[in-house]
Specification:
The protein is of the alpha/beta class and 469 residues long. It has two domains: 39-167 and 215-392, Alkaline Phosphatase, subunit A; 401-468, Arylsulfatase, C-terminal domain (2-Layer Sandwich), CATH 3.30.1120.10. It has eleven helices and 19 strands. The chain has helices at residues 4-38, 66-73, 88-97, 125-131, 189-194, 220-234, 266-288, 328-331, 358-365, 382-385, 442-461, and strands at 41-47, 76-78, 81-82, 116-117, 135-139, 159-162, 177-183, 204-206, 209-213, 240-245, 295-301, 335-338, 347-349, 353-354, 398-402, 405-411, 414-418, 422-426, 467-468. The protein has an eleven-stranded mixed sheet with strand order 7-9-8-6-5-10-1-11-12-2-13, sandwiched between helices. The chain has a four-stranded antiparallel sheet with strand order 15-16-17-18, with helices on one face. Helix 6 (220-234) packs parallel to helix 7 (266-288). The longest helix is centred in the N-terminal third of the chain and has 35 residues, at 4-38. It is globular, with a radius of gyration of 25 Å.
């Protein structure tokens, strides 16, 4: 007959092992939870030619944006947020690489006739996040080269759906058609090859093939939104990066029947209000999928609005200037960020921040880092996003390029512009750039000009080639 010790010892051991197993399970779950807490989902919404004022919470008197306004109430408005250029392709190159566009040699707008694009050797936000285990998708306007070596699927994105450049362009007749391509307006593969391409008739692509031509632009915002939500649903169990660069409100404007003719701001307002609807759908999907608390959503624009008198352009008020210019209206853009528990609700940041900062900042948020084997101009703005009291802009100076020319620089509230003449403005007292103070501060002008020259020389000494076929 066994004694009591022989009976109890195995029981105690088994109980201890059971408790240890439960502890391992708990620790495993905590490890997984910690991993995902360090790797939030990231949604980057990038509109095309939306002006600084063209959101309700940024002062629009007629454009109704309830979802963006609520996003700002639940997050942070950035009121000194800058694009790196005042036109499409350079601003996108800067956003994705964290570099001034001149550094990566995409200084101007790319057209279907061009055989260049963003160099595949560049490292994009998508490359960095994909390497760190993120699912990645680009849905919308690309505009960094429409030839296959330059498409999103070669730049870190698992999938692509959208128009490869601006919606006022044409098709490249040599583009590859999908087997199930939808051809509209009487088009055939033969006509695409033989007829002169028509302006505003652009291809809609899926991955590396044309899926529809000419694209029905009136349904684009709706289709981009559905595609985005499908991607979120398919990847809800792993970290994902969704880059959603809307085609609108670039001209020609287009809106679906649900929104067409409904905005007090006219056709332009229709397109923005439909994009606002899209934001609402995406935020609602995050809550439905229980991803809301672990997702950073960034909303901003590629540059300022067109200067159009027919109601098809936006507003940058109270800023001066428009798209194509280095006045504030061409470069300073609306920006809203929302991340529950990380970004304080209902907050505002007036410190200088820029689209080039998103590459290193998003990399850090994901638990990794920007590439260290090349110059990256962007800086970490996470302290600004978190609303830390001592947080200040990491940019001692911020530079405004127009094409290959360094045309302006901002230091604190001071801004120097050197285009046709020397202009100096104090943006803290004169946000609309109305009073040129250059003659009153000659020493400041000289010092800022010297710094601009030195920075430009340094950038050109460390630039990198564009991609070529």
């Amino acid at each position: 007959m066994r004694n009591l010790g022989e009976i109890l010892i195995p029981f105690v051991i088994m109980k201890a092992l059971s408790q240890f197993s439960r502890l391992l399970v708990v620790l495993g779950l905590l490890a997984i939870s910690t991993l995902y807490a360090k790797s939030p989902n990231i949604i980057l919404i990038f509109t095309d030619d939306q002006g600084y004022q063209d959101i309700g919470c940024f002062g629009s008197p007629k454009i109704r944006t309830p979802h963006l306004d609520k996003m700002a109430l639940e997050g942070m408005r950035f009121t000194s947020f800058y694009s790196a250029n005042s036109v499409c392709s350079p601003s996108r190159a800067a956003l994705l690489t964290g570099c001034y566009p001149t550094r990566v040699n995409i200084p101007g707008v790319l057209f279907p006739r061009h055989d260049i694009g963003l160099n595949p050797d560049e490292i994009t936000i998508a490359d960095v996040l994909k390497e760190h285990g993120y699912a990645t998708a680009c849905i919308g306007k690309w505009h960094l080269g429409h030839h296959q070596p330059f498409l999103p699927t070669r730049q870190g994105f698992d999938s692509y759906f959208g128009i490869p450049y601006s919606n006022d362009m044409t098709i490249d007749p040599e583009m590859e058609l999908a087997d199930d391509v939808v051809l509209r307006e009487g088009m055939t593969p033969e006509k695409i090859k033989s007829e002169k391409p028509r302006k505003n008739w652009v291809p809609l692509m899926r991955n590396e093939q044309v899926a529809e031509y000419p694209c029905d632009q009136s349904t684009l915002t709706q289709r981009y939104t559905r595609e985005a939500i499908r991607f979120m649903e398919a990847n809800k169990d792993q970290p994902f990066f969704l880059y959603l660069p809307h085609t609108m409100p670039h001209i020609p404007l287009a809106a679906s029947e649900k929104f067409l003719g409904k905005s007090p701001r006219g056709f332009y307002g229709d397109t923005i209000e439909e994009i606002d609807w899209s934001v609402g759908e995406i935020l609602a999907a995050l809550k439905r999928l229980k991803l809301d608390q672990n997702t950073l959503v960034v909303y901003t624009s590629d540059n300022g609005p067109w200067d159009l008198k027919n109601g098809h352009g936006g507003s940058a008020l109270p800023l001066r200037g428009f798209k194509f210019q280095t006045y504030e209206g061409g470069m300073r853009v609306p920006c809203i960020m929302r991340w529950p528990g990380q970004i304080p609700a209902g907050s505002e940041c007036s410190e200088i921040a820029a689209s080039i900062d998103l590459m290193p900042t998003l990399a850090r948020i994901a638990g990794t880092s920007a590439p260290s084997d090349r110059v990256i101009d962007g800086m970490d703005i996470l302290p600004l996003m978190q609303g830390r009291q001592d947080a200040r802009s990491p940019h001692k100076s911020y530079y405004y390029y127009k094409g290959r020319k360094l045309e302006s620089m901002r230091q604190g509230f001071w801004k120097l512009r050197h285009a046709n003449e020397i202009e100096l403005y104090h943006l803290g007292q004169d946000i609309s750039e109305t009073e040129n103070l250059a003659t009153q501060h000659p020493d400041r002008v000289r010092a800022m000009l010297r710094e601009m020259e030195a920075f430009d020389h340094s950038l050109r000494a460390n630039d990198r080639p564009e991609g070529k076929l």
